[in-house]
Specification:
Elements: E1 7-8, H1 56-77, H2 93-102, E2 109-111, H3 117-122, H4 127-135, E3 172-174, H5 184-200, E4 211-216, H6 223-234, E5 239-245, E6 248-249, E7 252-253, H7 263-266, E8 274-279, H8 283-300, E9 303-308, H9 326-334, H10 337-342, H11 347-370, E10 416-417, H12 419-433, E11 437-441, H13 457-461, E12 466-468, H14 473-485, E13 489-493, H15 504-516, E14 526-531, H16 547-551, E15 557-559, H17 564-576, E16 581-586, E17 597-598, E18 612-613, E19 620-624, H18 629-636, E20 643-647, E21 650-652, H19 656-666, E22 669-676, H20 681-692, E23 702-706, H21 715-721, H22 725-736
Parallel strand pairs: 2-3, 2-4, 4-5, 5-9, 8-9, 11-12, 11-13, 14-16, 15-16, 19-20, 19-22, 22-23
Antiparallel strand pairs: 1-8, 6-7, 10-17, 15-21, 18-20
Helix pairs in contact: 1-2, 1-11, 2-8, 4-11, 5-6, 5-14, 6-14, 12-17, 14-15, 18-22, 19-20
The chain binds thiamine diphosphate.
Length: 738
């Protein structure tokens, strides 16, 4: 096939300079000048910046190993069921291997997808590891936990195979996701971390690094793609969108993913983006385009490179491609990059590389078969278990911080704080003592947050550390993943609980990231979310608590404090932990007199999983949390000495022992929460109480919650559905009389 037109449309319209003439500026005063040219550090100056000379022998070696591995899987291992879920990369190899040659900066990172194995192998993944992954064996990157082509890899060695002082390490391959499109925002997060570490922290070792996200033509239709594109271009981040367009997303043609089927063409007018497009089957042309793209990203900002590639096999082994015509398949075969690559080498060299690769693959099959099947630890690594991950978290570059170290002196202990002040004080302490901590979200910058939690913070710590973001919750959480993996401590705010909905995919992926990599990677972050109804008003959008959904979201800790002191202690613990944390701030409590407490001081931490016993009683245990604590206390006061009120304070983990000890003493149990009934967290507590304390019960355990309906806007209607002191009192009376 004739060489495709190489498109470069960006030079003529690169827009966003600090003042681009349209009145747009780079950001508020103090905001890092993302538009300023990046000065490359001499020692870490990437190879691409000095015109990488491609060694076609090395490229051929990687391409052939990948091709032969796919062939063995397709001919032998998949039909025999030894690799139960096989994704072939035949046709994609050349483009990916060429890309890997350029990722030579020690702080380069890539987010990959299931068809990225050639890239992984060119970055150091061995054929044995690749096969072990497909076979679900020990010794694979996920230790048999994840689909064999859903990879992660801490940096290793020299991806180009060429010795040079400038090529000391391969990229960090961030944990891939099985969700198409979920790879883009973490890459944007890593790219933003590069910018942060270079420009805000002045770490020259990070200068010139880049992030690249690999994706197919289907992935350009996803939310994650557009979110990352907006972030990368508005902030001019060193992010390469590397799109391998094989014309199909499974069986759906690319014309349904983007109009006309060519994302590069459609992005021609996107400001701040270099757009390149060409064939991934032609060695010289592809190498030139990739080199150009990488160089641009390292020095100038984001680029989207679309390379057309053939998909020479089905989407997976079981896909017979009946949706493609014979002519189409023949056309794809003609675009196979291997013959063109072979032409770059003398036939005898190609033959010997082929023989070598065949031997290597054959040996790898035997070695992978001999690896043990992972047994008995499938539930480990959901949370931090005491051994620090290799990649991710601000502690991974130094010892974890101890409580009370290098904090500002104690404040006036007689001062009473409201809940929002407590949150603000702890965040400011963290920003003051941990330069790797960043606070960001919608309106948290100049405005100080719609709830005021970050008021004045940007002025104190600068717009490089406390900043506003584009309106994309997937962007906020996905980017926090990338930042955390790059060693920062992101503290994003989601403006209201309901607006975490668009981030669901990223939240789920962040939670299972440690587990999926068998403890090698982790993305600790603290996500602050105002939840629940307001002091006087509610509605279906701003009043959700929804803790049950996050309790069911694997790998997240969840704090739900009811007062200022608990909020301070739990937030400080969260910031020093190694797991992702959801930190709920109840809107009705932010400034409520009931929730105010004396300042517990800068060393105060509160462990997760420790309930507070608020009243003593001998006849009933009332378990609650958040804003429901106060009507529960009012109701309990009407039954002096009889009701033991427990404030759980954290939902994940929750204090089973405190609950069971109390229920065994009182014989009765009532759970009250603001979240709705069906599937609410009360169900979980009552299931445990019933199973573990059945013989101690004198009455059926009960729950009192908002019924299964959204929070209404009318104050009268809202009062009708929320539990209150009267309805709680009635439930207590009923249970006591049983
Ligand atoms: C969010 C999400 N939706 C659907 C799927 C199922 N799925 C897996 S791959 C795929 C097609 C993706 O095509 P493309 O991005 O073009 O990559 P290619 O497989 O062609 O390399 C689909 C629909 C998924 N994994 N994730």
């Amino acid at each position: 096939m004739a060489a495709e037109k190489v498109t470069d449309v960006t030079r003529r319209r690169r827009g966003a300079s600090p003042d681009d003439g349209a009145g747009r500026t780079a950001g508020p005063p103090g905001f890092p000048d993302y538009n300023a040219p990046v000065a490359l550090d001499v020692e870490t100056q990437p190879a691409s910046a000095v015109q990488l000379r491609i060694d076609w022998g090395i490229v051929a070696r990687h391409v052939l190993r990948s091709r032969l591995l796919d062939e063995v899987e397709e001919a032998e291992l998949a039909p025999a069921g030894e690799v139960p879920y096989q994704f072939s990369a035949r046709g994609h190899e050349l483009a990916q291997v060429l890309l890997a040659q350029h990722l030579t900066h020690p702080h380069d990172a890539a987010t990959v997808y299931y068809r990225s194995r050639p890239f992984l192998m060119a970055c150091g993944l061995t054929p044995t590891e690749a096969l072990a992954a497909g076979m679900g064996r020990t010794g694979s990157p996920s230790e048999g936990r994840d689909v064999g082509v859903v990879f992660s890899m801490p940096p290793r060695g020299d991806p180009s195979g060429m010795r040079s002082a400038m090529r000391s390490a391969g990229p960090t391959v961030l944990p891939a996701s099985g969700d198409v499109g979920a790879q883009f925002t973490p890459a944007a997060g890593w790219a933003q971390a590069i910018t942060y570490r270079t420009r805000v922290l002045g770490e020259s070792a990070w200068s010139g690094a880049l992030a690249v996200a690999l994706g197919g033509d289907g992935s350009v239709a996803t939310n994650g793609f557009w979110s990352a594109l907006t972030i990368a271009t508005t902030l001019r981040l060193p992010l390469l969108f590397f799109i391998e367009d094989n014309g199909y997303g499974l069986s759906v043609p690319s014309i349904l993913q983007t109009p006309g089927g060519d994302i590069a063409r459609n992005l021609e007018s996107f400001a701040g983006l270099l757009v390149l497009s060409g064939s991934g089957s032609e060695p010289e042309a592809a190498a030139a385009l990739i080199g150009r793209a990488v160089e641009h990203v390292r020095t100038d900002g984001p680029c989207l490179l679309r390379l057309t590639v053939p998909r020479l096999s089905g989407h997976t082994f079981v896909d017979n491609q009946a949706y493609k015509s014979t002519a189409e398949r023949e056309g794809e075969a003609r675009r196979d990059p291997l013959p063109a690559l072979a032409a770059h080498l003398p036939p005898e060299v190609w033959q010997s590389l082929n023989d070598e690769a065949a031997n290597e693959v054959r040996n790898a099959v035997e070695m992978a078969r001999a690896l043990p099947v992972p047994m008995g630890d499938a539930t480990r690594h959901l949370f931090f278990e005491g051994r620090l991950q290799y990649v991710g978290g601000s502690a991974s570059e130094g010892p974890p911080r101890q409580a009370g170290d290098s904090l500002p002196p104690a404040r006036d202990p007689t001062r009473r704080l409201n809940l929002i002040e407590a949150v603000r004080l702890v965040l400011e302490e963290e920003l003051a003592t941990n330069p790797r901590c960043l606070v960001f979200g919608e309106d948290v910058g100049v405005k100080g947050g719609v709830h005021g939690a970050t008021a004045g913070m940007q002025a104190k710590f600068g717009a490089g550390r406390v900043f506003d973001t584009s309106l994309s919750e997937e962007g906020i959480i996905g980017r926090a993943i990338g930042m955390a993996l790059a060693g920062l401590l992101p503290v994003p705010e989601i403006q209201f609980r309901k607006y975490a909905d668009p981030a669901t995919e990223s939240i789920n992926d962040a939670g299972t990231l440690r587990w999926r990599t068998a403890g090698k990677f982790a993305a600790p972050m603290v996500v602050r979310i105002p939840v629940g109804h307001g002091k006087r008003i509610g509605d279906p959008w701003h009043s959700v608590t929804g803790e049950a959904i996050f309790a069911h979201t694997l790998g997240w800790r969840l704090a739900f404090p009811s007062n200022a002191a608990d909020a301070a202690g739990l937030l400080r613990s969260a910031l020093r932990g190694q797991d992702p944390v959801m930190f709920f701030e109840h809107r009705a409590l932010l400034d409520a007199p009931d929730a105010r407490r004396p300042d517990p001081g800068p060393g105060h931490t509160l462990p997760f999983g420790q309930a507070a016993l608020l009243t003593d009683g001998d006849s009933l245990t009332l378990i609650t949390w958040g804003a429901m604590v106060y009507p529960a206390l009012a109701a309990a006061a009407r039954h002096p000495g009889r009701v033991e009120v427990l404030d759980l304070r954290t939902i994940v983990p929750w204090d089973r022992e405190a609950v069971l000890t109390s229920v065994r003493k009182t014989g009765r149990c009532l759970v009250v929460h603001e979240d709705t009934l069906t599937g609410g967290f009360a169900g979980e507590i009552l299931a445990v109480v019933t199973a573990e304390a059945f013989t101690a019960l004198d009455a059926p355990p009960r729950r009192l919650t908002t019924p299964d309906c959204p929070t209404p806007y009318s104050a009268e209607l809202m009062a009708e559905v929320l539990p209150n002191a009267e309805s709680i009192d009635a439930a207590i009376a009923e249970l006591l009389a049983f």
